[in-house]
Prior knowledge:
Blueprint: E1 26-33, H1 42-58, H2 69-77, E2 81-87, H3 89-96, E3 101-104, E4 109-112, E5 116-117, H4 123-126, E6 150-153, H5 161-178, H6 181-189, E7 195-198, H7 201-208, E8 214-216, E9 228-233, E10 250-252
Parallel strand pairs: 1-2, 6-7, 8-10
Antiparallel strand pairs: 1-4, 1-5, 3-4, 6-9, 8-9
Helix pairs in contact: 1-5
Amino acid sequence: xxxxxxxxxxxxxxxxxxxxxxxxxxxxxxxxxxxxxxxxxxxxxxxxxxxxxxxxxxxxxxxxxxxxxxxxxxxxxxxxxxxxxxxxxxxxxxxxxxxxxxxxxxxxxxxxxxxxxxxxxxxxxxxxxxxxxxxxxxxxxxxxxxxxxxxxxxxxxxxxxxxxxxxxxxxxxxxxxxxxxxxxxxxxxxxxxxxxxxxxxxxxxxxxxxxxxxxxxxxxxxxxxxxxxxxxxxxxxxxxxxxxxxxxxxxxx
Length: 253
């Protein structure tokens, strides 16, 4: 199995200051298309954002001597930040003209871009708004398929859609890091099936004790530092409670 070699004491998702904070800081930009007349459904936007993160991680341009490989390495050597901005109309067309990958869901479109310096966003992305990504589900999402990966959101936290999209992306990335090359290839070839769902309050503590990848927020926006936001329940990573098998990835961003 492929594991993230970073110890928890120097994790890129750690909320306390660490050596990772001394490295140049980068951010992975994601832009969600939100047209006034036809905004995407919230759950579909979360799932599409998570697939977008996986798609750029798996892209050949992100590996080896690929054109995005250096930026991807620099980003993953520091805090692995993700920021979701919104666009519509001409803003979206300008964003699509920049190097990146557009991932489409049932109703959502999300474009992910190679990492950029924290203070060095391209002009056409820097001008986009972060706020205003509050989305709704027209109908309650159907139950998640237990045989497929599920990103379980903390039922006790209220997050904007943009914040939740970034958190879902973190969780998907933690799962990706822990999979073997063969498991990654299988997930990729299947089109990265996954679901994002809010956990039942009665089951949340069980999920956080199953040894599955767990995202803790660093508290930069919206919620308190150290808050557990998402559990990545990938079937290949399910373990017995209380740490049987490999230690779980627990990160905050």
